[in-house]
């Protein structure tokens, strides 16, 4: 009977890229192939304890272990393994010690033929994109929402918005007090979006009737901000599929690109809005509807 080993590995992800390590030893099926950092679990170790140890021994890399990506059974010519791969966030730099090459690859660049056979089963999940949302309820999570807003709004709207308006809007509408009031008074849900375990954006929505009595049913999508590295990854379509229809949202009238993308997703313009938001600022939007 072939020996069996419990093995653990880390899909280390940073800025949308995955850390790939090329093996310098092993049998002909794995030598010179890429793999995830990791190794055999020792007696008395949990999977996460083993993974933290392996990351340090192989790379001098400190990591924060995230959720389990998947577990599989795989039979090599000389042994069988139970391989469990976790997402991991790098907390330090690293030094390659036992591998012959390291690369940071976008998921689209993960070619199964370049990887050790057991590791190939996990590549499709990364290539397809593991999308997850989690409700934001703590001050630390509200900080993440504000940080995303700062990044996306300045990136997209700086040339379309009067000086100071973006920071004014973030301070006014995304303070801890404003978020908590929206949750309590209007039934808002704020969710942080994760793509392959990394923070990729956030959304905020509420029952449509709480936005306007004219919207008798459905959902009002107040915000959907996606960081640059995660755009074009089908996050919007997946999120929209979870919301009660019809879905309403407002889009800046002069943001032609977002208006066109929204139309491509099935939204149509139903109203033109101008809103005084204080401090001499106003917003000029389209109210759009997805039936």
Task: Please give a quick description of this structure.
This protein is an alpha+beta fold.
Helices and strands in order:
Blueprint: E1 4-14, E2 17-23, E3 34-35, E4 37-40, H1 47-59, E5 63-75, E6 80-90, E7 99-105, H2 120-128, E8 131-135, H3 139-157, H4 165-173, H5 176-186, E9 189-195, E10 198-207, H6 208-211, E11 219-226, H7 235-240, E12 247-252, H8 256-264, E13 268-278, E14 281-290
Parallel strand pairs: 1-6, 11-12
Antiparallel strand pairs: 1-2, 1-4, 2-3, 2-7, 5-6, 8-9, 9-10, 10-11, 12-14, 13-14
List its traits.
14 strands; 8 helices; alpha+beta; single chain; elongated; seven-stranded mixed sheet; 291 residues
Average of per-residue pLDDT values: 95
Radius of gyration: 23 Å
Helical amount? 25-40%
Intertermini distance: 60 Å
Structural overview:
This protein is α+β, with helices and mostly antiparallel strands and 291 residues long. It has helices at residues 47-59, 120-128, 139-157, 165-173, 176-186, 208-211, 235-240, 256-264, and strands spanning 4-14, 17-23, 34-35, 37-40, 63-75, 80-90, 99-105, 131-135, 189-195, 198-207, 219-226, 247-252, 268-278, 281-290. The strands form 2 sheets. Strands 1, 2, 3, 4, 5, 6 and 7 form a 7-stranded mixed beta sheet that branches. The chain is elongated, with a radius of gyration of 23 Å.
């Amino acid at each position: 009977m072939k020996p069996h080993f419990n093995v653990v590995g880390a899909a280390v992800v940073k800025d949308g890229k995955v850390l790939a390590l090329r093996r310098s030893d092993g049998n002909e099926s794995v030598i010179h192939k890429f793999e995830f950092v990791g190794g055999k679990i020792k007696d008395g170790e949990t999977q996460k304890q083993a993974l933290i140890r392996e990351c340090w021994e192989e790379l001098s890399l400190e990591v924060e272990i995230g959720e389990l990506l998947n577990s599989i059974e795989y039979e090599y010519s000389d042994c069988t393994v139970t391989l469990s791969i976790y997402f991991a966030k790098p907390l330090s730099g690293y030094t390659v010690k036992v591998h012959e090459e390291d690369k940071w690859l976008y998921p689209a660049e993960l070619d199964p033929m370049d990887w050790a056979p057991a590791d190939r089963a996990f590549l499709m999940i990364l290539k397809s994109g593991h999308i997850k949302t989690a409700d934001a309820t703590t001050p630390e999570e509200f900080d993440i929402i504000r940080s995303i807003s700062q990044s996306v709004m300045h990136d997209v709207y700086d040339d379309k918005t009067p000086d100071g308006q973006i920071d004014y809007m973030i301070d006014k509408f995304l303070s801890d007090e404003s978020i908590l009031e929206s949750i309590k008074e209007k039934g808002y849900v704020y969710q942080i979006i994760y793509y392959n375990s990394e923070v990729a954006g956030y959304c905020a929505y509420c029952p449509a009737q709480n936005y306007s009595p004219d919207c008798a049913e459905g959902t009002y999508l107040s915000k959907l901000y996606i960081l640059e590295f995660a755009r074009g990854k089908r996050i919007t379509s997946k999120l929209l599929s979870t919301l009660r229809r019809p879905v309403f949202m407002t889009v800046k009238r002069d943001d032609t690109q977002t208006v066109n993308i929204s139309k491509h997703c099935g939204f149509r313009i139903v109203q033109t809005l101008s809103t005084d938001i204080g401090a001499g600022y106003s917003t000029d939007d389209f109210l759009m509807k997805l039936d």
